[in-house]
Amino acid sequence: MSSVANVFTAGFGLGLTVAIPLGPVGAATIREGLERGTASAFLLGLGAATVDFLYLTLVYLGVVPLLLRLPWLVPAFYLAGAYLMGRMARGALRRAWEGGLPPPARQGLARGSYLTGVGITLLNPATIVSWLGLGGAFASAYLRGLNPWEATLALISVGSGSAGWFAVLAVATGSMKALTGERPWILRAVNLVAGVALAGFGVLFVVKGIATLQ
Q1: For residues 63 and 65, what is the distance between their CA atoms, to the nearest angstrom?
Q2: Contact present, 59 and 128 (Cβ < 8 Å)
Q3: Where are the alpha helices (DSSP H) in the chain?
Q4: Cα 195 from chain centroid (whole Å)
Q5: Which residues, 6 or more positions from 160, have their beta carbon under 8 angstroms from its beta carbon?
Q6: pLDDT (tens place) for every residue of the chain, 214 residues total
Q7: Cβ distance 89 to 195 under 8 Å?
Q8: Cα(54)–Cα(60) distance, rounded to whole angstroms?
Q9: What is d(CA 29, CA 23) in angstroms, rounded to the nearest whole number?
Q10: Do residues 100 and 184 lie in contact, with contact meaning Cβ atoms separated by under 8 Å?
Q11: Alpha-carbon distances, residue 79 vs 132, 203, 209 (angstroms)
Q12: Where are the domains of the chain?
């Protein structure tokens, strides 16, 4: 296996490693797949994968460490992320309360799902911290010595690993959409769990955001 192929394999694995742990994006993807189907869930995950690629690229270029020196940036990200988590939690809990009613209509469904994934990941400071550590190690171990074209392809491989996991999650949850139509209590339970989880992430973001101000 060539050195470039090794980098691609490592990058794909890194993308999987970051994407697999269940967090705000995973919870939102599961809910999206059960409510709106595979395509919508995958687009949400693709939005998250796009931000993963963006953050790793900025780490590789040395931009993220410079930005993190701004004292207001991290608290702002935490508070903005808390606001987004709160809005999503409110929507999920409302759906749980409404029970088996169909999901509300959304204009520009594809764009809305994609931008939701972008927003959740972009405003999650944990994502920045993860890529600052893991991305820095990946850049040091694999990307040095590659020409710009090879490095770009290697960065894309990381995003592909992240997108690959969300594709699996989207197919798994989307295939169960018909089941939730027959058994509305399943979707109600998923919305309840997702709402509580997203609210928990929101509270955690507020606490950490306040802690960074001290």
Answers
A1: 6
A2: no
A3: 3-19, 24-36, 38-60, 63-67, 73-98, 109-122, 125-130, 136-138, 148-174, 177-182, 184-213
A4: 16
A5: 11, 12, 15, 49
A6: 456 677 778 888 888 888 888 788 888 888 888 888 889 999 999 999 999 888 888 887 877 666 667 677 777 777 887 888 888 888 878 877 776 555 555 555 667 889 989 988 888 877 777 777 777 777 776 667 677 777 788 888 888 999 999 999 999 888 877 666 656 667 777 778 888 888 888 888 888 778 777 6
A7: yes
A8: 10
A9: 10
A10: yes
A11: 20, 10, 6
A12: 3-213
- List the structure tokens of 164: 């690959």
Residue closest to 208 by CA, chosen among 126, 128, 133: 126
Q: Give dist(CA 40, CA 116) in Å, integer.
A: 10
What is the C-alpha to C-alpha distance for residues 32 and 27, in angstroms, rounded to an integer?
9
Task: Pick the closest to residue 11 from 129, 150, 201 (CA basis).
Answer: 150
Task: Report the distance separating Cα 159 and Cα 154, nearest Å.
Answer: 9
CA distance 50 to 63: 17
